[in-house]
Amino acid sequence: MARRWAQWLLVLALLVCGCRESAGDNPGPLVGKAAPSVSLETLDHQRFHLRDHRGKPVVLLFWNTSCQVCKREMVELEGLRSAIGAERVMMATILSDPENIDVARRMVQGLKTSYPTLLDRGGRITSGLGIDTFPTTMVITPAGKIGFMRQGFTEPLMQQLRKAIEGHL
């Protein structure tokens, strides 16, 4: 009986570690490196090319449909985008589990976000960057480098993001 409980606790721990509410202090090994070549389909069947947004900061939020904290960050990003000015910064989310596209569509519609949701089919971008924690937030500089990266979500994250974005305006 104790062994069965231990197994269930291990499964629960593995599920929970993929979605965190606390942001790490470590900026990550990718900061300062060139941003990946991102060309993904959006929820509304458009094509999003990261290169089309060179010259202004781009915020990318990596998320999945089982991450409840991700929804909160998506709403906060919408507010930050409005405060900075939608024309000054590009924001997009990257859905790491597009096999749940119907759930994602309902979530995005319910949250009333105005930025695109990109579908990372096969996890090419997410796994290529080594992202295994959701949410993970990244700022790409106008020059195409990763200027900021954080895993998890906390209240100070929006202030950190705003500072990172405004440093590149």
Question: Can you write the helix and strand succession as a string?
Answer: HEEEHEHEHEEH
Query: What is the C-level CATH assignment?
Result: Alpha Beta
- How far apart are the first and last residues' alpha carbons, in Å? 59 Å
Q: CATH superfamily membership, which one?
A: Glutaredoxin
Q: What's the story with the biggest beta sheet? A: 7 strands, mixed
Structural class, from helix and strand content? Answer: alpha/beta
Output the strand order for the largest sheet.
2-1-5-4-3-6-7
Share of helical residues: 25-40%
Number of strands: 7
Kindly report the CATH topology: Glutaredoxin
Radius of gyration: 16 Å
Low-confidence stretches: 3-18, 20-26
Number of helices: 5
Shape type? globular
Number of structurally distinct domains: 1
Q: Label the CATH architecture.
A: 3-Layer(aba) Sandwich
Work out the strand percent: 15-25%
What does this structure look like?
35% of the residues lie in helices and 20% in strands. With 169 residues, it is of the alpha/beta class. It has a single domain (20-166), classed as Glutaredoxin (3-Layer(aba) Sandwich). It has a seven-stranded mixed sheet, with helices on one face. Strand 6 (136-140) and strand 7 form a beta hairpin. The chain starts with a helix and ends with a helix. Residues 3-18 and 20-26 have low confidence and may be disordered.
How are the elements arranged and paired?
Layout: H1 2-16, E1 39-42, E2 47-49, E3 58-63, H2 68-84, E4 90-95, H3 101-111, E5 117-119, H4 124-128, E6 136-140, E7 146-151, H5 156-166
Parallel strand pairs: 3-4, 4-5
Antiparallel strand pairs: 1-2, 1-5, 3-6, 6-7
